Amino acid sequence: MKTIVLTGASGGVAGMIRPLLRTNYKLRLSDRGAAPADLGPNEEWHQADLTDAGAMAALVDGADGVIHLGGQSVEADWETVARPNIDGLYNILTACHEKGVNRFIFASSNHAMGFYPRRRRVGIDQAVRPDGLYGVSKAFGEAICSLFADKHGMRCMSIRIGNVGTAPLDIRRLSIWLHPEDLVQLIEIGLEHPEIHHAIVYGASHNERTWWDNTSAHSLGYEPKHNAEDHRDHALAEQAKIPAEPVGDLFQGGTFTGDGFDGDLDRTLNARPIR
Fold it and tell me: Are 113 and 257 in contact (CB under 8 A)?
C-alpha cells in the first residue's frame, strides 16, 4: 500500500473520507490537535503544526503523497488565515520537494471564486475572485501548487471544494454540493493519474444547478456518482428557514461575500474583465 499523509485529519471532511481512503492506502494522519477517536486499520497518528517546518519534514518523510486538508477553514483575521494557509502550505510543499514526495492534493475552495454572480457559469480559465481573506489564501494555494509543479516537477491537484456532506442543506448547496464518495474519487485521480501536472478541478457532485464548468475534472476521468437533485425537497425546506441576505444571496460565495461588504454592489455584481 502507498503511504499517504492526510493533514487536517481531525476535521469534519477528513472524518467523512478517511474510512473510504484507508481501504486503498496507508494513512499517516496529522493535525495540530488531538487524534481522532476512531483510528482504524491502516491509520497512524502524528501530531504536528503546519507552521513548524521541521515537523512537516518529518511528517512527509517516506510518504508517497499528501492530501492537504489542514489549515484555517473559515474566514478570520489575516494572521489567523495566513500562518497556516500560506506559511504552513509553503512549509509542507517545501518538505515534499525536499523529501521527494511527488503527489500533492490541495484542498482549495469555491471561495477562491466567490465573488462571481450566481448567474455566471465559470470554469478554471476565469480569473480568481476571492470573497475574503480565506478565499485569498486558497487562490495563493493554487498559485504555489502551480509553481511547485512547473519548477520542481511535482504533480499537484487543486480541488475547489464546494460543500462536503451526505446531502445538500439549502439552495446554494444544491449547486455546490460534494458527496464524500465523489471527493474521494477526485483525490484518487490526483494521486494516481499519470498525466497530472497541476490540475485545477471543481469539487462538486452531479449538480444540475451547478455554476461551474468542470470539464477539467471530467477530462481526467471523473464521473460523480451522486446527484444533488435527489435531495431537493429537503434542501428547499431548509432554505425556507434561512433569512434572506442582500449580498450573499447574489454571489456564489454566499455569506462570505456579505461579511464586511461595503463596496459598490452593482459594480461588483456586473464586473467584467477588461481585455
Answer: no
CB-based contacts of 32, cutoff 8 Å, min separation 6: 47, 48, 49, 50, 70
Phi-psi category of residue 262: left, alpha or beta, with phi > 0 → left and psi -120 to 50 → alpha: alpha
How far is 84 from 25, CA to CA, in rounded Å? 26
Gap between the Cα atoms of 149 and 155, Å rounded: 6
In whole angstroms, give the CA distance from residue 212 to residue 202. Answer: 7
Catalytic residues: 134
C-alpha to C-alpha distance for 274 and 120, rounded to whole angstroms: 17
Crossing angle for the helix pair 12-21 and 180-192, nearest 10 degrees? 60
| β partners of residue 47 | 31
Between CA 40 and CA 49 the distance in angstroms is: 22
The residue whose grid cell reads 503544526 is 49
Kindly report, residue by residue over 195-241, the tens digit of the pLDDT. 999 999 999 999 999 999 999 999 999 999 999 999 999 999 999 99
- Superfamily in which the 3-270 domain is placed by CATH: NAD(P)-binding Rossmann-like Domain (3.40.50.720)
Q: What is the pLDDT of residues 70-111, one digit of tens each?
A: 999 999 999 999 999 999 999 999 999 999 999 999 999 999
- Where are any strands of DSSP class E within the chain? 3-7, 26-31, 43-47, 65-68, 103-109, 155-161, 163-164, 177-178, 198-203
Residue with cell 460523480: 224
| Grid coordinates of 253 | 460565495
Left, alpha or beta for 260 (phi > 0: left; psi -120 to 50: alpha)? left
Give dist(CA 145, CA 195) in Å, integer.
16
Q: Rounded distance, CA 113 to CA 255, Å?
A: 13
Q: What is the pLDDT of residues 175-194, one digit of tens each?
A: 999 999 999 999 999 999 99
